[in-house]
Structure prediction request, 310 residues.
Amino acid sequence: GGPRRCRRLEAEAARAVLGAADTLLFDCDGVLWRGEAAVGGAAAALGRLAAAGKRLCYVTNNSSRTRAAYTEKLRRLGFPPAEPRHVFGSAYCAARYLRQALPPGAAAYVLGSPALAAELEAVGVPHLGPGPAALPGPAPADWAQAPLDPAVRAVLVGFDEHFSYAKLCQALRYLLRGGPDCLLVGTNRDHRLPLEGGTAIPGTGCLVKAVETAAQREAFIVGKPNRYMFDCVVSEFNIDPARTIMVGDRLDTDILMGNSCGLTTLLTLTGVTTLDEVKGHQESDCPARQSLVPDYYVDSIADLLPALGD
Ligand code: PLP
Ligand code: CA
Prediction:
């Protein structure tokens, strides 16, 4: 109870907080690595946590890699071995959602990456795309004549570097044809992907918004801060929220999901968030902003190492 404090997790408190947890959920980019470079000391810290018997899971909004690709990246960067079932990417979670929500044999029209298609295949959801939409004619108005697959009962939007107006047309046509019976699912709403040097590229949220705007309806979002991603972890491992720590670098995804699911939340400053942003939320009276404040913070998860010493 009481307002969250965002206290720095020093060695002594860290020992107590980690001792009371049996599972840690790690956001990936900005926490474990930045792009292709591991955060210094992060692999060693996770190695010690694994050696201490903690269950380590990985929760990422990035829909452009499969679970298998994440286990390979973890291995390559020196993190303790992980099995695909410990990885909860938004591509896998979206596939899992559609398998459960679609009637047998129904297909999804996909704006996304080959990884998203691979995860759908792995759980047995038929899909069209990704790939270029057929263009039966030179003008956008002709595109409304492109054939529609009768099996499609869902539109799924993930990170799609080949997003196009033609695909947006097809997505809208499926949603108009199916009406409310056609599902509209987005992997995540991250608005930007920050790059080194203060620049950024548009995130999947921009693509989801485009389809939502065309269809004039709201997508179901699989990724953080929606609790669906946490529910996937629970159904795989039956974890206890009160003994689980969510570690993330982003307030409106990682920390918000952790707080709303009853987890202990730990912010790390190796990613997109500064302490000044947290302070702004903390000083506000708005309950929605209070729910963005983590329980604890560290400069880097490498700071957990002293608490894990033998
Ligand atoms: N979406 C895409 C396409 C990304 O490339 C990334 C980060 O690299 C993310 C989302 C955010 O991922 P995470 O939730 O691991 O921070
Ligand atoms: Ca992140």
In short: DSSP finds twelve helices and 16 strands in the chain. The mean pLDDT is 95.
